[in-house]
Amino acid sequence: MIDLFNKKPVLATLMTMVAMFSTVNAQQKSKAEEPLSPKQESIIVIASYTAQGGLENLHQALGTGLDNGLTVNQIKEAIVHAYAYCGFPRSIRGLQTFMEVLDERKARGINDDWGPEASPIADERNKYERGAETLYELTGKKWDKPESGYGAFSPEIDRFLKEHLFADIFERDVLSYAERELVTVSVLSGIGGVEPMLRSHLNICLNVGLTPKQLQQFAGIIKRTIGKQEAKAVQTALDEVL
Question: How much is the average pLDDT of 157-176?
């Protein structure tokens, strides 16, 4: 005869649920404590030196990035992405420096992995809609045509941002959103004087999976690569965001 008052099955179920929650909490804690990977660190350093035009330091950072496992196409993509924030001249000089690094490594018998190229875009919507959707994915808020602010004052720049930056560039899958945001905040830190945009993109970094600990590590890398003054501005912006 079944004992309807037997509490063992209920207790077993509760113990299983507690174990499951403990595992999830442990995984979340582990992720929160996980440092930036060597690849992510290299992306930050490469983008920082590209933005500042420090080609000698960039030369060394590019070789380190390849040694850390970044593909040729990932590094190319990071340098190209940087142009949207620091301009064509810095980006092109970065690419020219990278070409020199690859030639030197090839002469030494090193055949670097080029990795996959960007996949074709199959989305048939217009680029403005696609860019607005990308912004929603990055920020968690809808971005309709602006009714005020710089976008309303200059509708052209709003269109360029959504159609080119957040459609043409951000849609390319060679880099993840998190990697692209690391490039972005690194370049913004290097050029300086754009703290409101830096704060916005630090928030986006959190939205796309980077942790507060990793962003604190990012600030330390900026201090080491760009300088104390720039790192101080980064830390101030980061303190406000966190």
Answer: 97
Domain ranges of the chain: 38-118+177-241, 126-171
Calculate the dihedral angle through the C-alpha atoms of 159, 160, 161, 162, rounding to the nearest 10 degrees.
Answer: 50
CATH fold group of domain 38-118+177-241: AhpD-like (1.20.1290)
Question: Rounded to an integer, what is the distance from CA 131 to the centroid of its chain?
Answer: 17
- What tokens were used for 126? 């217009």
Give residue-wise pLDDT tens across range 89-139: 999 999 999 999 999 999 999 999 999 999 999 888 999 999 999 999 999
Burial of 151 (0-12, 13-18, 19+ CB in 10 A): middle
Total Cβ atoms within 10 A of residue 66? 21
Enter the pTM of the model: 0.86
* C-alpha radius of gyration, the chain, whole number: 22
